[in-house]
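hiii, so i know i said id send this last week but things got crazy w the move. better late than never?? heres the sequnce for the chain we talked about at the cafe, plus the structure i predicted for it. fair warning i was half asleep when i ran it
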Amino acid sequence: MKARSAREDAPSSFRWRASLLVGLLIACALGLVYRAVNLQLVDHGFLAKEGDARFSRVLEIAAHRGTVTDRYGEPLAVSTPVDSIWVNPSELALATDQIPRLAKALGLDRQELARRITSNLDREFLYLARHKQPAEAEQIKALGIPGVYTSREYRRYYPAAEVTGHLLGFTNVDDQGQEGLELAFDHWLAGEDGAKRVIQDRYGRIVQNVESIRPARPGKDLVLSIDLRIQYLAYRELKAAIRDQRAKAGSVVVIDVATGEVLAMVNQPAYNPNDREQLQPFTYRNRAATDIFEPGSSMKPFFVAAGIAAGKYDNRSIIDTSPGFFKVGAKIFEDEHNLGAIDIATVLAKSSNVGMAHIALSLPPQEIWSTLNHLGFGQVTTSGYPGESAGLLPNYSQWRPIGIVTMSHGYGLSVTPLQLVHAYATIGSYGVARPVSFLRVESPPQGERALDEHVCRELIGMLESVVSAEGTGKAAAIPGYRVSGKTGTAWKATAGGYSTDRFMAVWGGVAPATAPRLAAVVVIDEPSAGQHRGGEVAAPVFSRVVGGALRLMAVPPDQAVTEIDELPSSPAAGGLRTTAGP
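okay and structure toks below
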């Protein structure tokens, strides 16, 4: 019976196993169908993205920053192609045995590199080195280390180096303007990076360009008003003067009177913008535009202009400076000698403090303030230079007699070299205040009338006496050209008063006097080699810079020369003397 029962049960067990097997097969088939549907429909986007991520990359196309040139097309700032090295830490972490090779190629400490990689595993992008030469970057790519890539960038290069350093400023490592004209015109110079999709192999080499996502838009070129020849000349002469006078600092600014264009702007000490180790605030500050100082007697011509504009003085007016001193309140102002009764041209030529005190106190304060305000004092120029200072010109409602006299001597108000040269340029253009421009202009701008023409013509004639043999600025003379200008020697302010052994030596003027073409200001801060007056220290720099510039620009001489004259010896030229033609 038992044997029979086993035979009867066998078909039932077979049927059960068969059913189970069929059920499993059906379940597997359904599972495969579900998985296929899930992969093709539900997770398709995610999987396609992950698959592309293994070989497809979106690369940025670096935009070329615009070139900066001088007015004649000489390059002042250019962007050169460089390559930066970056890694995907998660990829490189799978080949840790390659880190020592990579560290050696990059000149990095292997332990520090390993720490940086392992501490950034959650990132997909990490810079290891910026702005490598393309040949160096190619050598690193040739190592074939997984997760190591290169990207093309641009680095700013300044061919004139420190000659134009303060003027141009510099860019940061991402080629964005940070200082100077690079910052002021960053919106113009900066381009817009593009993007493209590519297929890369495991070594980061591009196998195929798939598509252009966004084309790169290069920056626009910028043409400055600067004449690089005059810029070099001003740089050379200022540097020599600072060295020979053992001065702390200095500035020179040259403006084209006819257009308002800045042809040269230099400072000392200088810095090289190509060397990022020199990029410290105290070195790259453009003193000519940002630093204010009390200009001393170089302000006297503008008070005389106020007197002429008010109708109280002209070139025939006589000022009695006897007995050689003048008391205002408890303060006594005096001249080196009792000059007696002198005309205004002599007041300027001898830089008479007593004469200026008489003139200033005879004028309504509002008239003086109005003249100085129209000449641009107490306000920034139209240059748009970043960080430019407005100087300091107190409102006339705050003036007292002693304050009016001290201001007529160049104290109690502050200016920048750029402001001061703009004021002299306005006098040189016969009262038309033209906008200060660092960009080349195609035609002279109209400008605004600041002073009547006859006021400026009389003043220019008076200022020629300063450069005469009896004047304080005879060292500013330029053979073959008539020069008008004024010296300035100012004590430097200290806590509680003024120093008696620290000076600012200043010269400001225009040339040729018969039809002014150039205006220039020279400022020497704390000369300490024995001479400290503006006529001794700053005036000779003006003579060499402006004299050379007039010849470079082929401006005809306006002074009759009966014999060959010797130009002042330039310390920068090693004592070389040249001669001026008729």
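btw The CA atoms of residues 365 and 397 lie 8 Å apart. thought thatd interest u
miss u guys!!
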